[in-house]
Design a protein that fits this description.
The structure is a single chain. This protein is mainly beta and 143 residues long. It has one helix and nine strands; from the N terminus they run βββββββββα. The longest helix has 7 residues. It is elongated and about 65 Å long. The protein binds ligand SLL.
């Protein structure tokens, strides 16, 4: 019987946010960082080719492509919104994966909040690659 070969990669994605001093001519109240990271401290770039973050259309430009680590976007803003995070892999024949995350700025039951009201909103996920081809395995097993 053919052995089933499954490779798991654990990731963390989400955002941090903190209050910034507001300048009179800007509506921005917070600086936030939206990111995808390895949950196991493995270099994600071994198998992640690029991450495309799609922000709320009020951010110009709303689409941010990051093709090297850290896979993140740092911005200033005033509101919470749902972002899309598209992960593309090496080799490019591998199907991309799209995650959604609500960028949170304000303390709530969805965030971990520090004394200074800075927040963290994170999710964990596992990317599962079943029976990777040799060309894929080369990237997935890279160290
Ligand atoms: C909504 N929650 O769903 C609102 C949208 C958009 C946040 C919030 C823009 C920053 C900038 C910003 O913070 N947008 O204009 O530079 O309709």
């Amino acid at each position: 019987m053919a052995e089933k070969n499954v490779v798991h990669k654990r990731i963390v994605y989400g955002n941090t946010a903190h209050i910034i001093e507001r300048s009179p001519d800007s509506p921005h109240t917070h600086e936030w960082k939206l990111y995808v990271q390895s949950a196991t401290n493995e270099p994600l770039e071994n198998f992640v080719k690029k991450v495309t973050f799609t922000l709320h259309p009020s951010f110009k430009p709303p689409t941010r492509v990051v093709d090297k680590p850290p896979f993140q976007v740092v911005e200033n803003g005033w509101g919470e919104f749902e972002a899309q995070i598209k992960i593309q892999f090496h080799p490019t024949t591998l199907k991309s994966m799209t995650l959604r995350h609500i960028v949170r700025l304000f303390p709530s039951d969805k965030t971990i909040t520090a004394d200074d009201n800075s927040v963290v909103a994170e999710s964990f996920d596992e990317l599962v690659f079943s029976n990777p081809s040799d060309s894929m395995a080369k990237y997935l097993n890279k160290e």
